[in-house]
Q: What sequence folds into this?
């Protein structure tokens, strides 16, 4: 039995509150399914560290992390301490890019017991994946200002798309679609307004399509696609999108299923050259930090995705993943619930309840 | 009594079906409120024109249009005939930019009789404006490709933000918020991921805020903002956004109120140096064209916004606008309804029903 090395980074705010519950549940599942995990906690990649050291992480962060199998990650950001673009570009976005975690995989699923903001939907009706490109595109610090501080001030912001970057995310998404019963892929674009990069994106989709003759694919401009998430979420199966569009759709999707507090995500390096990062979709929520009321389900579910990834097809790990998801469903349906879900339970109580079911 | 000169451009697809109904209603309102309108129909700015002439509009389009007070515009685009980025950049986007229609104003309102996709909402609960920057930002044809056709292919797409462009749209939005009872402004950003342009946008909002001490403002990243449109649309009053974010939010908002088929929009040059353009939010919908089933309400409501704009504060025009909106509400509530709203009426029948109420 091999040991999986996992780096634990709680980050800021409620990242520190949900992480212990994530660990509690992952450890319980590991015990039950006889999976050997070794956790190492890193006290950096948070805004307090920045205030002390002038950077989010130690200079040798890459070397410290690169040999882990996975990074279990809470949430980073505390705008009153450090501007978001500094804290995020100094941590999470570095991992995604420098560990080449080019797939951001985000399930969107209507779970039992979660009140749906959309009328007349029941669990099972909404069940799809957003596959987001995670290393290039609109997320860029390339560009600059001219005539700063004057009336003529002009800001240029570059988006960068490469054939390699686009093709590999499309391939991942087509393969995922192929593995699912509906075999349906939707590509997000905006080639009618963004005139250079998005027509290129469309071209690459057209080029990839024929290689997957059994996958039925279509494309929508991001504006109408966002509208369709609200009006007909049932029709989606796998949605592939650029970095920015994927970011928007993977918050919007979970909102359509009730709450982003329970949504998980995986930042995957499919070649396993570097560690992948597993983190909830929600942020660090400084406004509710310190009360032990944050919902730990997103963190826990991300832990389940981590086990699945570590198993790489091994049935024991898949079983561990499935057991956690079933336990989450139980707790969502019967409680205890944190205040955001209409309950009065604490973060710890919810984490313990999920762990107990394992 | 002055005569208002209006250019009429139906465009493609259902633009041609909803335009006659828009005109029918606007003319009925003009008669009733004693407003003098003169319409001139342009047979260009559509994809068939492009197929014949190799361009969307005649070369002297600017001169032909510039002295009109307004352009009443259907919808452009027919991807099977002409790629969207060519048809749109050759028409609508030219108007917005060259006539410096820097405000795209889009009301989001839950209307009576429209089934709301969100649970437990009633008319009045959702009532806000999206104020979208309409001339710069992410909509850009600046950029290019290197290593085309090879594995190294790299595409650069520039977004361009100017202090002038950002400040004037923020000013319009702050003033609009100031004129409303709630006096609340929300700015859409993504400064945690898009590292050059969006921090600049945030800076300009911070700089503008103190000039409007009675306006309460906040900001959200676009991902979570999209989620909040679904989870708590009641809280919004005026939402200001860049070109792309405004595009997404102004489709998503109407979707949250039931359908984008009835959503109107105004592309405004506030200084009235050039004509403003009034158009429904929906597109040309080639798939349903030719059946006379398109919903004309978005076109009609846009006509009401046009009258309001032409009046520039004159009570007669405001009354004409309000009368059209009331007639729309009546028809939405009691029918007739087009198939998209669950009815069996034609485009023409709905248009006639609204006109009759005037
Ligand atoms: C057709 C398209 C270019 C246009 C836009 O993106 O601006 C449309 O979606 C709109 O919102 O008016
Ligand atoms: C915090 C932020 C930079 C991040 C992103 O935009 O990618 C977050 O919203 C996410 O979706 O993981």
A:
């Amino acid at each position: 039995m091999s040991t999986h090395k996992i780096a634990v980074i709680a980050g800021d705010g409620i990242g520190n509150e949900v992480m212990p519950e994530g660990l509690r549940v992952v450890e319980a599942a590991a015990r039950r399914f006889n999976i050997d995990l070794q956790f190492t906690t890193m006290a950096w990649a948070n805004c307090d560290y920045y205030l002390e050291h002038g950077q989010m992480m130690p200079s040798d962060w890459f070397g410290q992390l690169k040999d882990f199998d996975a990074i279990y990650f809470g949430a980073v950001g505390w705008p009153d301490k450090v501007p978001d673009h500094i804290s995020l570009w100094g941590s999470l976005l570095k991992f995604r890019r420098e560990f080449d975690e080019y797939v951001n995989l985000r399930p969107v699923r209507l779970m039992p017991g979660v009140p749906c903001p959309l009328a007349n939907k029941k669990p099972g009706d909404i069940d799809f994946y957003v596959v987001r490109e995670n290393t290039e595109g609109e997320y860029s610090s390339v560009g600059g200002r001219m005539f700063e501080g004057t009336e003529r001030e002009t800001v240029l912001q570059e988006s960068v798309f490469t054939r390699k970057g686009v093709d590999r995310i499309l391939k991942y998404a087509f393969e995922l679609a192929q593995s699912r019963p509906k075999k349906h892929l939707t590509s997000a674009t905006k080639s009618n307004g963004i005139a250079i990069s998005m027509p290129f994106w469309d071209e690459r989709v057209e080029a990839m399509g024929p290689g997957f003759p059994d996958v039925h694919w279509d494309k929508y401009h991001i504006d109408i696609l966002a509208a369709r998430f609200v009006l007909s979420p049932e029709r989606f199966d796998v949605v592939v999108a650029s970095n920015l569009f994927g970011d928007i759709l993977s918050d919007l999707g979970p909102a359509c299923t009730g709450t982003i507090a329970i949504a998980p995500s995986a930042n995957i390096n499919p070649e396993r050259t570097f560690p992948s990062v597993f983190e909830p979709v929600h942020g660090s929520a400084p406004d509710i930090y310190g009360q032990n009321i944050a919902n730990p389900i997103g963190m826990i579910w991300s832990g389940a995705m981590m086990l699945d990834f570590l198993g790489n097809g091994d049935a024991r790990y898949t079983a561990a993943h499935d057991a956690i998801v079933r336990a989450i469903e139980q707790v969502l349906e019967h409680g205890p619930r944190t205040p955001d879900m209409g309950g009065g339970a604490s973060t710890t109580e919810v984490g313990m309840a999920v762990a107990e079911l394992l």
Summary: DSSP finds twelve helices and twelve strands in chain A. The first strand of chain A starts at residue 3 and ends at 11.
